Each structure stands twice: as structure tokens, then as C-alpha cells.
Amino acid sequence: MNTITRRRLIKTFCALPLAASLPRIGNAQGTPDFSQLKAGYAQRLKKILATGKLPYIDIESSCNASRVDVGAIAQSMDRLNIGLMALSADIGKDQFSKGIRFDNLSERLLASYPDRFIPVGNGGQPPALTGAPNEFLDAQEVAARKKQMMLLGEFEFRHYPSSRQVKRGELDRDVRVPIDGPVAHRVFSLSETMGMPFQIHYEVEDELLAPLERMLEGYPKARVIWCHLAQVRYIERASHYTPAYVDSLVRRFPNLYFDTAFGDASSIYPLSSQRHARVWTAFGGLKDEWRDLIVAYPGRFLSALDLGQDRLDRIAEYDQRHRDFLKRLPTEPQHQVAYRSAWSLLFGEDFGRGSN
Ligand SMILES: [Zn+2]
Predict the structure, then answer these.
(1) How many angstroms separate the alpha carbon of residue 306 from the centre of ligand 1?
(2) Which residue among 88, 161, 201, 307 has the highest number of C-beta atoms inside a 10 angstrom radius?
(3) Are the C-beta atoms of residues 301 and 328 closer than 8 Å to each other?
(4) 193 Cα to the center of ligand 1, angstroms
């Protein structure tokens, strides 16, 4: 952005009291008006850009809806210049045992902060996705068809216990929901029919790649975000997953995206004792081959923090880590990955063009 444009933007935003300029969101049915949301999002992103800072869209974070301190997150987003966040609710054991299959956290977030939260479905994980998959998917689909969300939450088809869960001795998040089974067919089909993106957590193992490719072939219009680019917990299980392999996926599947929520160079997965964020060199640099891939197709890679309820209070640390990755990209791809890719995915147009 040139200086004149930046000055003009600053002037515009200083002249408008924020409250007066924010769109009113929603209607009597609790369904958000996407065009009003989009206007507020664009305004917020442009406001941050006008200060010379880089905003980004966190496409993948989650929380426990009954414990999350929304005001604290909103304040942190302002302090850290985080543009937007798709903060999804995970349905915990308590809610699940009460029969809850859809949590309306997004509606509550938009009621307070319509210019920074993206309405998103719930996390597809145990117990909901494994204990009552059809009820869970029914509820997500009803909300999706009522346009209560812009994307579906992260579905865990293959999930090893996370590093933090291992440390807490919680090994029950060892999830296997076949990527070519009935649950997956329903999710891919829903995404294809509605044009709505969804996220998958899918550990990298050689034997898991072919079934995913078959699903992508079978549902070419499904919009899939494969979370955690190059996060490989056991290298001996994943000899086929290389930058060249991801390059081939990107070329074969135009609706496949990757988010960039991964650990730093020193992060070790405790069950394998391996440095699982494979984009980094041993000395903490971004490997040339991964950087070249992202630079070649920046529109297919998305910013993400992957916050969860157990680490929401570490948002500054996660922000710092993510920015440490972004700053290693050239300026144009940096802006593309930070917010433009998500914008195109959600709104089907380039940021700064069309009606925004
Ligand atoms: Zn994940």
C-alpha cells in the first residue's frame, strides 16, 4: 500500500466513530447477514493495514464455549493486530451428555464482535463425531443450510493425541474416522453441494494418502482445508509426503487448501521424540523447498493459529510464532497467505476488489 492511500485510509477511519460505522448484524432468526459481516471484516483489515501492520485471518482455532473469555480474546486480537478469527466451539463431554449437537458460539461472538469473528461450525471430534456422528452432522448441516456459518469446523479423521494431551496423559484423542467412510462422504458431499469449506485434521501417513486422494477425486468441488501443513509426527510412516507431493496435490486438486498451523523449529512431538514441524531446518530457517512451494501457490495456503481452550491464554506466543513464519515469505505471498487466501476462499473474490 502506498503512503497516500494509507494516509487517506487513516483519515477515513479517524473520521468515523467505530461504533457508528460498524454494521448491524443478523436478523430475527439469528442468521447473520454475510454481506454486512464482510463489510465489517474489510473495514477492520484495512484499518490494520493502514497502520502499516500485517493483519491475518486465523482460519483455525477452537475453544470450550462455556469457558472462553471472549472479551480477552478480542482485546488480544486488537493488541496483536490479528484481523479475523474463525473460532469454533468444541462440543465437550458435558454438552454431549446433555444431548447438545450444535453449539451456537458463533452467534454469540458475532453479537459482541461482528467485525472480527467468522461464523464457523463446531469441531468434528470425539465425543460428537465418534459417539453420535449422524446427529452431529445433522445439526451442523441444519445450521449450515440456515447460513449460520461460513465454513465447517475441523473434522478429525485421523488425529494422534496432541503434544499437550500426551503430557496430561490423555491418550483418548487417538482418532480414526475413515476418510472414505460414511461420515467423510457426507461431509465432502455437503461441502460440494453448498460450496462451503471445511477443515480436516489428517495425520500424514503413507497409507492414508491414497484414500484422501480418491475422495478429492470423487468430490472435486468440495473445498477442503488440510490443517497443519507438513506436520509429520512419525517420519518413518510418511516417506511419500514431500514438498513435491504437496505440489502435485495442489496442481491436481484446485479446491484443496492447506493451513499453516505448525510448531516452531524446536517443537518436539513427545510420542515419537521427533521435530514434527517439517518446514524448518535444524537451525530454525524455513526450508527452501517448502518456501518455494508456498511462494509458487500462495493462494492455496492460509494463516492459522490452532489455538484451543488449553492454550488461549498463550495467544501472544502463538501470534509471535506465526508471524515468525510469515515474515520469511516475500511481501506479496506474505499478504496472500495472511488474509487474501482466506478472503478469496470465503467470499469468492480478491480482497480489495469487487464490493469490499
Ligand atoms: Zn488439528
Answers:
(1) 7
(2) 88
(3) no
(4) 24
CA of 155 to the centre of ligand 1 (A): 8
For cell 474489510, what's the residue?
42
Q: What distance in angstroms lies between residue 154's CA and the mean position of ligand 1's atoms?
A: 7
Q: How far apart are CA 200 and CA 310, in angstroms?
A: 20
Q: Tell me the CA–centroid distance for residue 59 and ligand 1, in Å.
A: 11
Give distance in angstroms: CA of 201 to centre of ligand 1. Answer: 5
**C-alpha grid cell for residue 69?**
473469555
| Cα 173 to averaged position of ligand 1 atoms, centre (Å) | 11
In a structure prediction context, what are the per-residue pLDDT tens digits for the chain, which is 356 residues long?
Answer: 444 444 444 444 444 444 444 444 555 456 899 999 999 999 999 999 999 999 999 999 999 999 999 999 999 999 999 999 999 999 999 999 999 999 999 999 999 999 999 999 999 999 999 999 999 999 999 999 999 999 999 999 999 988 888 888 887 778 999 999 999 999 999 999 999 999 999 999 999 999 999 999 999 999 999 999 999 999 999 999 999 999 999 999 999 999 999 999 999 999 999 999 999 999 899 999 999 999 999 999 999 999 999 999 999 999 999 999 999 999 999 999 999 999 999 999 999 876 66
